[in-house]
Amino acid sequence: MRDELMSGLGEECGVFGAFDFDGEDVSSYIYYGLFALQHRGQESCGISVTRTFEKGKNVQFHKDLGLVNEVFDKKTLNSLEGNLGVGHVRYSTAGGWGRENSQPFVIHYIKGILSMAHNGNLTNASVLKEELATTGAIFQTNTDSEVIAYLIARERLHTLSIEDAVRSASEKLEGAFSLVVSSPSKLIGARDPFGFRPLCIGRKDNIFFLSSESAAFDTIGAEFIRDVEPGEIVTIMNGEIISNKMRTTKKQASCIFEYIYFARTDSFIDGHSVYKSRITAGGILAKKYPVEADLVVGVPESGLAAAVGYSQESGIPYGMAFYKNSYVGRTFIKPKQNERTSGVQVKLNVIRDVVKGKRIVMVDDSIVRGTTIRNIVKMLKEAGALEVHVRVSSPPFKFPCYYGTDVPSKENLVAVNNTLEEIRESIDAESLGYLEIDDLKDLCPGLSYCDACFSGNYKGGEPIKEEDIGCC
Amino acid sequence: MRDELMSGLGEECGVFGAFDFDGEDVSSYIYYGLFALQHRGQESCGISVTRTFEKGKNVQFHKDLGLVNEVFDKKTLNSLEGNLGVGHVRYSTAGGWGRENSQPFVIHYIKGILSMAHNGNLTNASVLKEELATTGAIFQTNTDSEVIAYLIARERLHTLSIEDAVRSASEKLEGAFSLVVSSPSKLIGARDPFGFRPLCIGRKDNIFFLSSESAAFDTIGAEFIRDVEPGEIVTIMNGEIISNKMRTTKKQASCIFEYIYFARTDSFIDGHSVYKSRITAGGILAKKYPVEADLVVGVPESGLAAAVGYSQESGIPYGMAFYKNSYVGRTFIKPKQNERTSGVQVKLNVIRDVVKGKRIVMVDDSIVRGTTIRNIVKMLKEAGALEVHVRVSSPPFKFPCYYGTDVPSKENLVAVNNTLEEIRESIDAESLGYLEIDDLKDLCPGLSYCDACFSGNYKGGEPIKEEDIGCC
Amino acid sequence: MRDELMSGLGEECGVFGAFDFDGEDVSSYIYYGLFALQHRGQESCGISVTRTFEKGKNVQFHKDLGLVNEVFDKKTLNSLEGNLGVGHVRYSTAGGWGRENSQPFVIHYIKGILSMAHNGNLTNASVLKEELATTGAIFQTNTDSEVIAYLIARERLHTLSIEDAVRSASEKLEGAFSLVVSSPSKLIGARDPFGFRPLCIGRKDNIFFLSSESAAFDTIGAEFIRDVEPGEIVTIMNGEIISNKMRTTKKQASCIFEYIYFARTDSFIDGHSVYKSRITAGGILAKKYPVEADLVVGVPESGLAAAVGYSQESGIPYGMAFYKNSYVGRTFIKPKQNERTSGVQVKLNVIRDVVKGKRIVMVDDSIVRGTTIRNIVKMLKEAGALEVHVRVSSPPFKFPCYYGTDVPSKENLVAVNNTLEEIRESIDAESLGYLEIDDLKDLCPGLSYCDACFSGNYKGGEPIKEEDIGCC
Amino acid sequence: MRDELMSGLGEECGVFGAFDFDGEDVSSYIYYGLFALQHRGQESCGISVTRTFEKGKNVQFHKDLGLVNEVFDKKTLNSLEGNLGVGHVRYSTAGGWGRENSQPFVIHYIKGILSMAHNGNLTNASVLKEELATTGAIFQTNTDSEVIAYLIARERLHTLSIEDAVRSASEKLEGAFSLVVSSPSKLIGARDPFGFRPLCIGRKDNIFFLSSESAAFDTIGAEFIRDVEPGEIVTIMNGEIISNKMRTTKKQASCIFEYIYFARTDSFIDGHSVYKSRITAGGILAKKYPVEADLVVGVPESGLAAAVGYSQESGIPYGMAFYKNSYVGRTFIKPKQNERTSGVQVKLNVIRDVVKGKRIVMVDDSIVRGTTIRNIVKMLKEAGALEVHVRVSSPPFKFPCYYGTDVPSKENLVAVNNTLEEIRESIDAESLGYLEIDDLKDLCPGLSYCDACFSGNYKGGEPIKEEDIGCC
C-alpha cells in the first residue's frame, strides 16, 4: 500500500526532459510530465529551461520543497521560457539540506551552464567525493548528483563534446543512475550499465522527451519511442537521437520492485507492462496459495492489479473492499500514537457491505514493518469479515536496497527476524502467502532483473561506505 | 466521475458536530470528521468549539478558504479548546464573498453565542430574507445559513429553549436543510421534513457525534447510532439524545443522487448501503442493456461499484482500465483549452494492456455535459479498445436540483436537447444505456426518495425567486 | 515613543473614502490613502469598492489581518474595480475574532449593499446591542461598527434617503464615531457631535475624498478642502458636497492626544497644525522647566517636534541622539524578558558621540508605564550622558479613554499611583517635567478639546457597561 | 536619501559572526545582529550554526529571500542549535539566482564543513573562476563568495590550518572582501589589504562577535573591542583572538562612502565616528556654501546628521521638514510612472508649517540620478518654501565603484554629463553646493580612504572583466 501516512517504503525520484526543435516553450510539458511522475517523489521538485540558439541567454530555473502543484503557479511556470529543459521530483529526505538537495542541479562550468536531474543511488559516491575533495572540490549539497556533475565538468576538460563527458563520467560511477542533462543545445539521457532505474524516450511532432516512466508520455499526448538501454547515452540534438554506449557493460538488472510497486500501473518498462506483471503475480499467488473464499480484494492502489490477477486465476469474485480518502496532503496532521484514530483508518475505510460475513483474500504488494497490514486486517474483521487470507505479490523483504530505494533498516523489516508463521500470527490473518524469489522470473518473462532486496544478491556491488546508502 | 478538473456536478456541503460529556477537547475529532467528509466540499472549511460548564468562556473558531488539511495546522487546531463543537466543509462558490460565506456561522444573539453549520438549499430564502430586511436585518454573507440563524435568534425571543427555537425556525423554512447547531450546553441536529440531505448520529464512549455521512464515524472509531429522521430535531445534552418533531410533516424524499454519486461508497444513509445501491444499479444495467463484451470497467471513483455490479450480473470479467493521479490539488494549473493535454488525460490514464483488443463495457455514474465521457471513450479507443459500450448508473440528467446540488443550467445538460442516439454518437460509443427513472426504486428498496433532477418532480416545491437557486 | 515592541498606547483606527465622478477606479487611491494612515492601525485593513451607475453590479471587497502592503498585492488591488469606495486600517485587538472584526463592514440590507468604515468608540454600544438583540438581531463581530450598521439599516426603513438614515442612526449613538459610508451612489461622512475623532474632506479634479487625516491627501496629490464638522453629515453625490447636521449638538471636544501623539506631524486637524502644537508644547516645557544643558534630543518619532520646540525656546542646541531601526515588522521576534537585549535596544540605539559628556534634555510625548523611558534614560547614561532631564509634552496619564484610544488600565499607569518625584526616581532622570493640564489650551489656541485621559473630565459621558470600553 | 522605492544607490551586504565559549546557542544573537545590519542588504539573509566540541554534529542553516524578520520565525530560529555561527544580509541582485546567491555559503570540503559570509566585490573573480573551471570546478551561484570558498578549500589541501588556508586564499584575491568564516571549532574574520569594507570585533562575557558595523554590538549589549585591520586575519578559538597578517600589504583605503551614506550613524569604523564625519561634512558645506536662509533641513535618514552640522556651523536653525512613512515593505505596490502619486510622495511628506514662507537649506548625502531630489525640492516649494538651497554632503558621483557598491552605470549618473549649473537648474534649486573631493580628508582626520566613485582613483585596481563588476 502506497502511503505517506504509514510506515512503509520510501519512494525514489523521477526525471523528465523535453526539447522542442520548433522552438516553443517546454515548461508546461515538463510540468505535466512531472505531475505524472509525482508518485516517485513528493518532497521537492524543480524545472530548468534554456532557449537554444540564443547565445548568452541564461538558464531559467525554479525548484522548491513541495508537490508539483504547490511549487509552480502560473506566473512562475510562464516565466520559465525556453525550448529545452529538464525536471525532477524528489523523494523525502531528512535534515535541513532539503531545499539545497532539490533538483535539477544547475551549474556553471568550463563550457557554460548545464542542468541535470538524477534518479538512483551511487555505491561509490563517497570515494568519488573524497577523490574530488582531495583536489579541492567543495560540495554544497548532500546528493550523489553533485558528484556526477563534478565528474562531468572534469571530463569535459579533455573530451570533445558534452555527451562524451557524460559517457566518461558515467564509466566512473558505480551503482544506479538514470540521468537527464541539458546543455545549451543538447538533451542527453544516460542509464547505468545495469539499467537499475528506468528511462525512456518519447516524441510528439518535433518535440522529444525523456522520462522515468512511459505513462508521462500519455499524459502529454506524446508517443513512446523506446527505452534508453542500460549503459546507453542518448543525445538528442538537431532533431535526431544519437546513441552511444559506455565501455563498462554489465548484464541488465532492471529493478523488479518497479514492477511490483514503484511504477505506475499504466507504465511500460524495458518492454514489459507493469500492469501485466502484477496480474501475473496475482495469478501465481492464486496457484500457489489457493484457498476457499468468497471475495478477492486488493489494498489500494498498488495491490489492486495483483488482486485482479488472483481473482482471474482462482475464479473467486473480485471486490472493492476499501474507500480511500485521497485528500491527504503534505500538511495533513497525522494522528498521534495514542489518538483515537490511526493513520490507516483516516486514509482507508472498509466498505462493510462488501466484506460482512465473507471469507476474504486480501492482496497487497509487500509487507515492510507489518504494522499497516495488521491494521487493515483488523479493520476487515471489525467490519464482519469471517476470514482474511493475506497474499503478498512480492517475496519477503529481507535486505536493504543500495540502488535507489529507501527501505527501512533490517531491524525494522518484519521478515528478517520472524518466520512466516510468526508474521501470520502477528497480523492475525487466517493464512499468509508470499511470492517466492524464484517466481519473480515469471513476472516479466525474459527480463534480466535485480531482486537484491529479497535475495541479497547485489549485482551492482555493495556500497563502499555507509554514507553511500541513500537515494536519488 | 468525480472531478474538479472537468465540467461536472457541483458537490454540496458536509456538516459535523461533537460533544464530549467527559469534558475533553473535540477539535481533533471534528478535524478528522471533516476530513472524512472532504468529498462533499473543497472550497472552505471551519471548526467552532466551546467549553461547556464554563460560563462566559467564549467560543473559539477558525475557518478559511481551502481543504481541511490546508486550513488547519497543529497550532490552530490545538488552540481550539472546547468539548462541544461543530464543523463544516463547503463546496466552491462564485464571487468575492468566498471567505465570508465559509462556515460554521458563529453569532452573538439574545442568549449568548451559537455556532451553526448547514447543508442544503432553501427554496424560500429570498422571501425570508426580504421579510427580515423589512424589519431592519442586515446580511453579511450570501448564504441561506445566515437567514436560518436570524430565524432561530428571532424565535428564541419567545421560545423556552434553543431547541424549540430551532424547531420553530425550521417550520418556516422550505427546501433542504440539515443543520448542526451548538449552543453553550447543547448540540442540536435538525433535518428538513423531506429529509433531502442526510444527517446521522454516532457515539464513542461519552462522546456524541452528528455527521452528514456515517463513514466519518468509522474514521474516528465511533459507532453509528441512527439517522436523524426527516423533520426531526435531536438535542444532545446531559449525555442523552432527546428527540422532537417539527409540526410540518412531509413524505420522506431522500436525495437518490447521494446514493448514485455524492456520498462515499462506505456510507449508510437512511438505512441503505450506498455500496449496495451502486452494485444494484450496475446489475440493472446489465440486465437491461446486455452486450457481448470482454471486460467491464468503471470510471474512478464513483463509477467503480456499479461496474462491479454489472460484472457480477453479466458474468463479464471486471477490470481496472484506468490509472488515476490523485495529486491534483487546489492550485493545480489546469491545461488551457488549446493545450497539448486535456484535464481528463492529466488525471486519468488508460492502462493499455487492460483494454487493447478488447470489447469494453464502461460504467459511469452520470453524464452531465458529455465532454468528459467523450474524452474517456476516445482514450480507451486510442489505447486499442475495439468497442466501448457506455452504461450510466443514473437516468439522464434533465432538470436542475433545487435542494442542494449544483447542477449546470439546462442548456449545458446534454440530455436535455439530445436524443439517446445523438448522445451515443457524440461520445462515439458503440452503445449507450442509462438507468430508467423507474429503476431508481430498486436501488434502495422501500426508500422514499427525490428524483427531481431526472424527473422534474419537485416534491419540496420550486424556488420562489431565482436567487433561491444555490446550495449550502 | 510610538512603538509596537514596547508597552505603550494602543493606537486607533483610520478611515478613508474616495468617489471619482469621472468613473475611474479608486482602489489605488484608497490603497495609498490607507498607507498614509497606517500609523493609526496595524492589525488589519480592507478596501471595498462599487461601480456607480451600473445597477446590480456587486460590491467588491478585500480585507484581512496585516499591514496595507501585506494584505494587498497588485492582483488583488486591480481586481477591486469601482469608482466609489471606502477603506479602513484597524488597531490590534485581542481574541480570535480578529479577522471577523476587520473592516470595511459590507452589508446587504433593505436597500441593497452598503460599506462602512468606523473610527471611534461608542459608550452606549452594549445598550443598543441589547435593544437590537431583543428584537432578534444577530451579531457576527465584536465591533461597535456592526451596531451602527444595524441602526442605519433600521432607520432606512422609514427615512427617505441613506443620508437621513445615517443621521437618525447617529443621533442614537453616544461616544466617539467618525464614519465613512458608501451606498450604491453616494459617499457619506459623519462625525459625532463632539468631534472626538478627526475626519476631513479632500479633492483632486473630479475625485472627492474623505480621510481621518489631511496628510493622506498630500500622499495622493489631492487638496485639503475642509474638516467635517462635529455633528455634521456630508453626502458626496453628483459631484457635490451636501451638508446636514445632527439634531444632537454638543460643544466640540477634539481629542487633544491626536495633536500630542496620534496624528502625523504633517496633518492638520480642525484647523490646527499638529506640528505647530508640538512645537508649542516643547516651548511651554522649556519655559516651565528650564535647565542648564548642552543638548535637546527627542525620542523618535513622536517626541522629535516637541524637542525642536524646546530647543528653539531655550536656545539649547537640538541634536539627534538616536538611530532608529525601522525594519521591525509584524513578524519580528521580540526579545524575551530575560534575554540579552531589550525591545528598546533592538529598535533604538544611542549615537554615542552625540551624547557623551553632555547634559541632555530628552523630550518624549508621554509616559505610560514608565518602562520604555527608563530604558532609554539608561541607554543615554551608558553612552556617556552626564545628566538626563526628561520633559514630557503631555500631562500625566491618569484616566482611561472611552472615546477610541486604547490606554492600559489604571493599575498600569505609572502616574496614577506615583508622585512626580517617585516617577523621576524610578526612571533615573536628573529632573522631570510634564505639561500641565492647563497648558493644553495653548497647544491649539481656540480649539475646544477633550482632555479626559489627563483630567477625568468625560464630556461625552462614561460608558454604560464595561463592554463599552474599547475602540474602533 | 536611503530608499528602495526610488532610483538610488544599491547598498551592499552585512556579515556577522558569534562564538559562545560557554556553549550556549548563538542564533538569537546573530538574529538581532543581522537585524541591526539590515540597512546593508534587504534581499536575502541567512544564519548558519554549528555546535563545537560535538564531533560529527552537522551544521544547521536557514537562508531565504526576505528581510530578517520575514525569513526567521521563532520555530526556525530555535531549530538552529549551536554555539558558533555566522550570518549574512544581502543586497538585492538581479536574475533568477536570487535564492541560490543567498548566504552564508555552507560547504563540505576536505576537512568537513565550513560556513562563510562575505561582503565586498572581487576585481579578479572572473579570472579566478576561469582558472578553477579549467581544473573542473563547477559553480552553483553567481557570487564571488563561491570563488573564495573554492580557493580556501584548495589551499586547505596544503596548509596546516583553516586560518592559514583563509590567508593563502586571501592573498590570491583582488578587490574588496570582508569575510566571516566558521569551521567546526573556529570563528575567522578576514579583511582585504586595503580594508575597503569594514569589519570589527566585539565581546560580551565569553561570547565573541564579528560584525560589519559596531552598532550591532550595541543592539545585543556587547562591547566593541577593535576593528579587524586591513590585511588581517583574526582567528577566534579557545577564548582567544589570534591575529595573522596577509603577505600582501597595501595602503589602507577605507570606503569613504560608508561614512557618508552606507553605515549607520551610530557606528564607528576604523576609529572614526560615522556621526561625527557627517556633522563635519555639514559644517564644511556651511563654510563653503553659506547662504541667507531661515531653516536647515535634512533629507531622512542619511541627510539628517549633515544638516545638523550645517545648522551648527551656520547658526541657521535646524528643522524637521519631512514626515517619513516607514511602513513600506518588500511587497509594497510602487506607484506606476504615470500614476497620481510618486514614490517619493508616498514615502516622504513635507510638513507645511515648517517650510511655508521660509528660505530652506536642504542637505542630502548624495545625488545619483537627480530624480529623487528634484521631486523633493518640488514638494518643498509646493508646500510654500520660498527658496531651496541644496547642499550635498559628498562630491559629485562620477565613477562606478568596483569594491562593493552598486552604483548605476555612468549614463545614469547626473553628474557625469551635466555641469553643476545644469544640475541645479534641473532640480530647480536656488543654489547647489557639493562637497569637494579634497574636503573628504577632513571627514575622518588621518584616515586613509578610497574615494574612487568621486575621483576615479582606483587604488585596488580595476576589474579584469566586465563580469567582475558587482557586489557581495
UniProtKB/TrEMBL annotation, chains A, B, C, D:
Pathway: Purine metabolism; IMP biosynthesis via de novo pathway; N(1)-(5-phospho-D-ribosyl)glycinamide from 5-phospho-alpha-D-ribose 1-diphosphate: step 1/2. Mg(2+) binds at S302, D364, D365. It catalyses: 5-phospho-beta-D-ribosylamine + L-glutamate + diphosphate = 5-phospho-alpha-D-ribose 1-diphosphate + L-glutamine + H2O. The keyword Nucleotide-binding does not apply. GO terms for molecular function: amidophosphoribosyltransferase activity. It is an enzyme of class 2 (transferase). Its EC number is 2.4.2.14. Binds 1 Mg(2+) ion per subunit. The active site is at C13 (nucleophile). InterPro entries: GATase_2_dom, Ntn_hydrolases_N, PRTase-like, PRTase_dom, PurF, PurF_N. Residues 13-239 form the Glutamine amidotransferase type-2 domain. It comes from the Bacteria. Its cofactor is Mg(2+); [4Fe-4S] cluster. PROSITE patterns: GATASE_TYPE_2. Keywords: 4Fe-4S, Glutamine amidotransferase, Glycosyltransferase, Iron, Iron-sulfur, Magnesium, Metal-binding, Purine biosynthesis, Transferase. [4Fe-4S] cluster binds at C255, C401, C450, C453. The keyword Transmembrane does not apply. HAMAP family: PurF. Catalyzes the formation of phosphoribosylamine from phosphoribosylpyrophosphate (PRPP) and glutamine. In the C-terminal section; belongs to the purine/pyrimidine phosphoribosyltransferase family. This is Amidophosphoribosyltransferase. The gene is purF.
